[in-house]
């Protein structure tokens, strides 16, 4: 039943001394003549309070008394407002969730699909690529700059330190932060670039015209609260590589042939939950990990019987016929989505637009261009209709992860090694999966983070090397003015139609290094370091300074650290740190495999590792210190930020931002 106070409405009292106590407020209310209330709540250290009532009459009486009284609270006139009753924001979602569960338990299908698999996986795909980058940059500036300015200003304001507000914030709020945020870099890889994808096992309406649902493996196009829980095949997406699409169709057919039920998030029953795939064209390696729910004894016994057949599915060579099956599936999906878009555009009216935003006509979707790109990819990988020619030493490996919970697996839910196409030790807990980046080869674990866009990552790491005042391939960064302007759109995206051209959503890592400002080059020279592009290390030769110490915070598998270590003088020290111990072990192996001797990697919290590391190797005037931060999506821990900020001898900190 609804809360009576929410229906009657509360009285809110403002301009109350924030350090006052509830007992003091209760005495003041009694003195003013307000006694018929249900409860009184004073928020600690906040200049307001609330009063709840059992009836509307009591509330109106108290409001009249407080508005007419001249009695001040701690010398201040109290301002009174009515907290109007409002509907809880989650009520409609709860109703939708209950309806979804009721329909699913009764064997009924959910509502019609609200979006295509392309719109669900890459929402910006209908926009030209340049517009995507501009939108991403605006979002970054809003997230990084506006929120940062507001929070910093609020911190000083709440602390009562208006006079101590920094000059850069008080005089020119945008100047300092604007100069610290670089433009978005374009990616040279625009299609089929992801080397890791996570696919969901689920159901969708049958395609053969029969009623009911059928098992499917792919991406979920809706959400739980919208009631659209269907899973659609990924064959029409352009960011998923062809090799992974072939493997998805293989495992989907395996699931259907063996009658393995997908996991249902509504009933919390089923077997197959998720399939994680990693693939590399350069090394030919393919890694698959099944996430399964084994709380049902009968399904667990069925899985033990069936999983022995999975290696046969993994090690079969990729064929042209399978690639053409992917294209045929994509063509069917493109025709279906194009018809749905046309129907939605024909039925859209101003009235219906206001009632249902999803019914608004969308820009024309050139599904045919996606099919052309997919056909070109098929011809590229299978030029003569033969099987995919994997490089020598290519490895295919299989992992299994058990998770019986209701949400998502955590780091404690281990991905257990099950099978590999190459010989491994009897007690081995992993098989090699390799990715090539620049001229180095990295071994990546099943749960480790690795840049999903390799070509974009190369551009990103080249920019990192430039920012760290390190020569990158002997090229001198072009010096420009203090303002950095966005580069022209990359050639890979030129020549395509401006409206309706198929261009992928902007990726995390960009392409083409941007020019470095003159001011930063001068700063490097002034502080004893090398200006970008100097052929010799004059300061080092004169004995004035040591080679820099580069800190790779949140190093993961060591991609940034190993890449920089291979481009730095041997005297330079690269130190990587990460909370994930398996990722750190991968980083150590990658450093050894690529003959990197001037890098070390430490497992632990950055806020605990950094202070000792900086005291050991970062004393002022002896070594330049540069930190590179590539944190998880949740951001750095505040203690880690504090440790970096307190390193006064550190020249600069460079970070990446993922939208």
TrEMBL record:
PROSITE patterns: SAM_MT_RNA_M5U (PS51687). Pfam families: Methyltransf_31. Residues 92-101, 484-494 have a biased composition (Basic and acidic residues). InterPro entries: Methyltranfer_dom, RBD_domain_sf, SAM-dependent_MTases_sf, TRM2_met, U5_MeTrfase_fam. Transmembrane segments: none annotated. GO terms for molecular function: RNA binding; RNA methyltransferase activity. Residues 83-113, 475-540 are annotated as: Disordered. Residues 509-519 have a biased composition (Low complexity). Belongs to the class I-like SAM-binding methyltransferase superfamily. RNA M5U methyltransferase family. S-adenosyl-L-methionine binds at residues 451, 578, 630. GO terms for biological process: methylation; RNA processing. The keyword Transferase applies. This is Methyltransferase domain-containing protein. Keywords: Methyltransferase, S-adenosyl-L-methionine, Transferase. SUPFAM superfamilies: RNA-binding domain, RBD, S-adenosyl-L-methionine-dependent methyltransferases. Residues 550-611 form the Methyltransferase domain. The keyword Lipoprotein does not apply.
